Amino acid sequence: MRLILLGPPGAGKGTQSSRLEQKYGIPQLSTGDMLRAAVKAGTPIGLQAKAVMESGGLVSDEIVVGIIEGRIAEPDCAKGFILDGFPRTVAQAKALDAMLKRHHKELDAVIELVVDDQILLSRIENRAKETVAAGGAVRADDNPESFKKRLAQYHELTAPVSDYYRSVGELRTVDGMAAIDAVTAEIDAILGK
Ligand code: AMP
User: Fold this and answer.
1) Which residue spans traverse the membrane (predicted)?
2) Residues taking part in catalysis
3) Residue 7, ligand 1, Cβ within 6 A
4) What is the pLDDT of residues 133-173, one digit of tens each?
5) Within the chain, which residues score under 70 in pLDDT?
6) Any idea where the domains of the chain sit in the sequence?
7) Is the CB of 147 within 6 Å of ligand 1?
8) DSSP string, 103-142
9) Which residues carry a binding-site annotation for AMP?
10) Ligand 1 centroid to 179 CA: how many Å?
11) What beta strand segments (E) does the chain contain?
């Protein structure tokens, strides 16, 4: 099963992807996680991405498309994958189309988690507070200033990705403000499980 989860930062894509990963035995491919790992490891891509990520900006299409192209060619993606945080621009969506076509593969579903901005802002504040309380390190881009920029980028550049998949009749939407289990149930219903 090849699946895309769309939605703004803080919508719950990571949480739902982890559940889908366990249920279907296919990997969750989060470009955000991969980029954070590259930053931590100090790779050339990480060095390029660090500042733009911390400010809440978007890493170049070229870098993330290259990362995904390499990743989906790995053996654990043979049965499918869940894309979380990619595509984030229409150019990335078109690059993904071309990539899948070259490999004679198709998407099974594109699901958008819909959540109001105000709810996202309070979720992100709570995520930071909970992380601190648990003794963890808050993500460098989970401060209100960077988060607002990430949200603005989402509306400007990523919302059109939903329109793109809607225009080709592939987009399904789910109320991401419902309880976590209810969101999972809706996704399962869409996937027919
Ligand atoms: P995320 O963990 O998905 O919220 O991603 C964290 C940050 O990584 C984003 O704010 C961007 O700076 C960068 N990033 C992740 N995925 C992409 C993508 N598909 N295109 C461009 N930048 C990305």
Assistant:
1) none
2) 13, 88, 127, 139, 150
3) no
4) 999 888 888 888 888 999 999 999 999 999 999 999 999 99
5) 193
6) 2-192
7) no
8) TT---SEEEEEE--HHHHHHHHHHHHHHHHHTT-PPPTT-
9) 31, 36, 57-59, 85-88, 92, 139, 150
10) 25
11) 2-6, 28-30, 81-84, 109-114, 171-175
Q: Which residue has the tokens 């366990």?
A: 22
Q: Which residues contact 27 (CB under 8 A, 6 or more apart)?
A: 21, 76, 77, 81, 82
Pocket test for ligand 1, best of 13, 53, 146 (most atoms within 8 A of CB): 53
Top mutation candidate among 5, 16, 18, 31 for ligand 1, by most atoms within 8 Å of CB:
31
Is 38 touching ligand 1 by the criterion CB < 6 Å?
A: no
The CB-based long-range contact list for 91-98 (8 Å cut-off, 24+ gap) reads 91/61, 92/61, 92/64, 92/65, 92/161, 93/161, 93/164, 93/165, 95/61, 95/65, 96/65, 96/68
Q: Does residue 53 line the site of ligand 1, with CB under 6 A?
A: yes
pTM: 0.92
Residue 128: count of CB within 10 angstroms of its CB: 17
For domain 2-192, give the CATH number. 3.40.50.300
Task: Say if residues 30 and 84 touch (Cβ distance below 8 Å).
Answer: yes
Rounded to a whole number, what is the largest CA-CA distance in the chain? 47
* Degrees, nearest 5: CA angle 106-110-115: 165
